[in-house]
Amino acid sequence: MRASGKGRRPVGTGALFVRTDAAGRETWYGKWRAGRRQVKRRLGLRRRPGTSAGLTRRQAETALREAITLAGARPLPEERLTFAEAATRYVDHVERVLERKPSTVQDYRSILRRHFEPFFANRALEGVTVQLASDYAAAKSAEGLSPKTVANHLRLLHALFSHAVKRGWTHTNPVAGVDRPRTSGADPDIRFLTQDEIDALISATPDDPLGNTDKALYLTAGLTGLRQGELIALRWRDIDWSAGLIRVRRSFTRGRFGSPKSRRSNRAVPMAPRVADRLATQLQASAYPGDADLVFGHPHTGGPYDASLMRKRFYRALSRAQVRRVRFHDLRHTFGTRMAAAGAPLRAIQEWMGHSNYQTTLIYADYAPDPSRGTAWAERAFGSAINAIEAPEKC
Q: Which residues make Cβ contacts (< 8 Å) with residue 276, sequence separation at least 6?
């Protein structure tokens, strides 16, 4: 072994040396101190004069600096955390520093408690390998979780390890090497109600105080595409009567008012005249007509309409109307499909519905008018005119 440099090196840059094996091959090695311990690393073969294989001294110096940097990210023994400790710290960071929505933090803690911690147990954070993370994905798929749910778990796990690398709790992100399960995306057979079905639904809704709120609610949901939480949080000040718009500014989820689902969810949605008329009637009949009062608040208390009760009454109204069972969320699809069928640009529909991803809006593309006039071409190619085509003469 021999050193490869003249004079003293700057403190913290380690040392570079060459080892020669029994066959006469020379290899670059580096050594440095990390805390109280000395670290040695093989860097690569030394390049012989007149050849292109191996590392030059300059390349070996670069490899040494990279090795020191990488090793410096490794936690010292007294700083090592278990997976559970690191996961808890990460979710606390998401809540207090990143200030994510309470519903998001609640979902993360639920995943930690029900899925991550039982699987990874008290394993050291550095003990989670690519193989173990892959085994987690396979185990959750075997339990019956959908590919989309498993992919969401892996995204959270990836974010957790990325944060851990930044904090110096570990040196690699094992989830980066895990293949994500293939997801089919949105269901192409989306469900929605026709205009006649909406009319039947409203007609089958009782005329009691809560039923009158339901009628306005179902019509607004089907003709504006607002999410359930956005409807519950809607205030009278959010109705712009002169502009014919409904401005979405907040949502109500898990007992709390908060910001809408995403940045794009803050939006203005066109209000059809029929919706405006129904909401005007609702305002006149409401005991809570103040600007800050809820449009669809409980008629007796003015407080938020319970989401579970809302869905139960919706299903009962569907049954009375003898309309096929759909989810309350499918009223949102009703807006998307009808606006697309009317020829509204898909980009505009994306804005109105608050989709953060244009790919989500594309589920309504099949309901838009055909710009290629395919029906007319099909009629020309395969319609009655085909009978007029004469058979070719036999040779």
A: 241, 244
